[in-house]
Design a protein that fits this description.
Helix content: 55-70%
Number of strands: 5
Low-confidence stretches: 13-19
Order of helices and strands: EHEHEHEHEHHHH
Shape: elongated
Radius of gyration: 23 Å
Strand content: 5-15%
Strand order of the largest sheet: 2-1-3-4-5
Amino acid sequence: MSAAEPQQPVAEGDQSHVPPLTTRVVIAEDEALIRLDLKEMLEEEGYTVVGEAGDGQKAVELAREHRPDLVILDVKMPILDGISAAEKIAEESIAPVLMLTAFSQRELVERARDAGAMAYLVKPFSKSDVVPAIEMAVSRFTELRALEQEVADLTQRLETRKLVDRAKSVLQTQYGLTEPAAFRWIQKTSMDRRLSMHQVAEAVIQDAAERQQQKEQQKEQSKEQSKEQSKEQGKGQ
């Protein structure tokens, strides 16, 4: 990776999320039993529920009042649905949003993402599903904040985000990093080398392409060597 790489990425060990970096949560779910179950799951994992709502409008008000670390919204709610509420919360950059939905259709997931949701959970879910989804939402929100600070222009920011996503995928595949760890490596390398994250991401992708090209060349060389050996063996017989 030449200029952009101070050292190769190293997979992180299994790090406990308790006490979590994200502690203060607002939850909005119009079904009281599901809301209660979710609150219990969160509290058992070390989170603090600072506000509860049964509709999207109340969720937005609670988010503005408490400025939590995370807002969890159900998609289907009265007064203001979860996607509309997510849009308002995202516009004001209050907190990352995690969506809850009973529908796994791609269209709904894309609508939630376009509205500003950082991650989603399909109901019914278990406690083991909740924590990774929260960590994903918070991680992606942190990434967006970092990109906003580095790139002012919206179009360039979107391009950089796409490039960083590709670089993260490379780091996850080649070095076994988690998505948050891959972003942290890109961010740290950017700071250490005084390069933009765009430049670091480009270097990661270019390095991966060069490695792939080398593998293909080695394959071709091996094939050629095998052919030559077969010819020599044929002559000797």
